[in-house]
Amino acid sequence: MAPELNLNQLRAFYFAAHCGSISRAAEELFISQPAVSMQIRALEDHYGIRLFIRKKKRLELTESGKKLYEVAERIFQSVREAEELLLQESDLVTYVLKIGSTKTLVRHYLGSFISRFRETFPKIQIQIDEGSSAKMVQSVLENRNDLAITGRVPYDPRLKIIPFIQDELVLLAAPGHPLCRKRVISIKDLRGENFILREQGSGVRRVIEQMFKARGIVPSAVIETGNVDFIKELVRMGKGITLLAKMGVDPDLRKGDLKALPLKEGPFILDIDIVISNERKLSKADDAFLNVLLSAKGLNYRPAPPSLPEKSTALPAAFPN
């Protein structure tokens, strides 16, 4: 009997066809470009057909690709409808769902997931708690929140960790800053610069400290704060430079208020995880919200071991065998 169609390969094809490029599909799926290409190539090789004509600036579908795209669109629409039906038919009653996360994730990423969840379960009350990654992880341990979505920090063994998405850290300065005159910047060029940094306990701050420590550099933090808008305003005023998660600065970059400076040693990746407790049973509301989060990215609810290595495990989770 021939193996069943691999839905992860089909999903990679669908996003690439919908976006018109591998890079944009990778951004939508929060995985690497090679991972998207690998899944598409495996699909083509398995069935012995060509799905794309690869041109310099854009992908074009072959006739077979066009037919498959129409089918894939119906498949994933049906998957969404089936999931919503099953969740609606479950015996969920009125619950309070308590979610902890960072301000950046709540503002720039989680809103669409929360809206989708509310459409399916309007009776469930949602409480959002915002703070640093370390504080939100602690809130799960103390049962103040049911789950947390945070930048990766050291984890207590009493927690279950599900690798979720990744974002890139961006070096930011005001337009006209002396560093803007350099085509490429090395981390060593940042010695002596005034840094305006996220507070201790932030996942972003942890990546920054690891990045500098590996090169024997201690950044001089003029100001530390958990207020990302305040950090961006100070950088716009020319008071210093910073590194922040890309998802939180895209609007500022498009408007030209801030300038992203290329780092030769990059990219530097922020791993973002879903954190739940090993010591309490998840409610049906928790399970339902986890399904909304994970199904949108093609992930299975398969918690990783509580102690995560420094190297990201997000890609294997995104495309399980």
What would you say this structure looks like, in words?
The chain is an alpha/beta fold. It folds into three domains: 7-88, Orthogonal Bundle (Arc Repressor Mutant, subunit A), CATH 1.10.10.10; 90-165 and 271-318, D-Maltodextrin-Binding Protein, domain 2 (3-Layer(aba) Sandwich); 166-269, D-Maltodextrin-Binding Protein, domain 2 (3-Layer(aba) Sandwich). It has helices at residues 7-19, 22-29, 33-47, 63-89, 103-120, 133-141, 203-213, 228-236, 250-255, 284-295, 314-318; strands at 52-54, 59-61, 96-101, 125-130, 147-151, 159-173, 194-198, 220-225, 242-245, 259-261, 269-277. Strands 3, 4, 5, 6, 9, 10 and 11 form a seven-stranded mixed β-sheet that branches. The longest helix is centred in the N-terminal third of the chain and has 27 residues, at 63-89. It is globular, with a radius of gyration of 21 Å. Residues 302-321 have low confidence and may be disordered.
Number of helices: 11
What class, by secondary structure content? Answer: alpha/beta
- Annotated CATH architecture of the largest domain: 3-Layer(aba) Sandwich
Net shape: globular
- The first-level CATH class of the largest domain is given as Alpha Beta
At the fourth CATH level, what is the homologous superfamily of the largest domain? Periplasmic binding protein-like II
How many domain modules? 3
Radius of gyration: 21 Å
CATH topology of the largest domain: D-Maltodextrin-Binding Protein, domain 2
How much helix is in the residues? 40-55%
Average residue pLDDT: 84
Strand content: 15-25%
Cα(first) to Cα(last) distance is: 19 Å
Sketch the topology as an H/E string, one letter per element.
HHHEEHEHEHEEEHEHEHEEHH
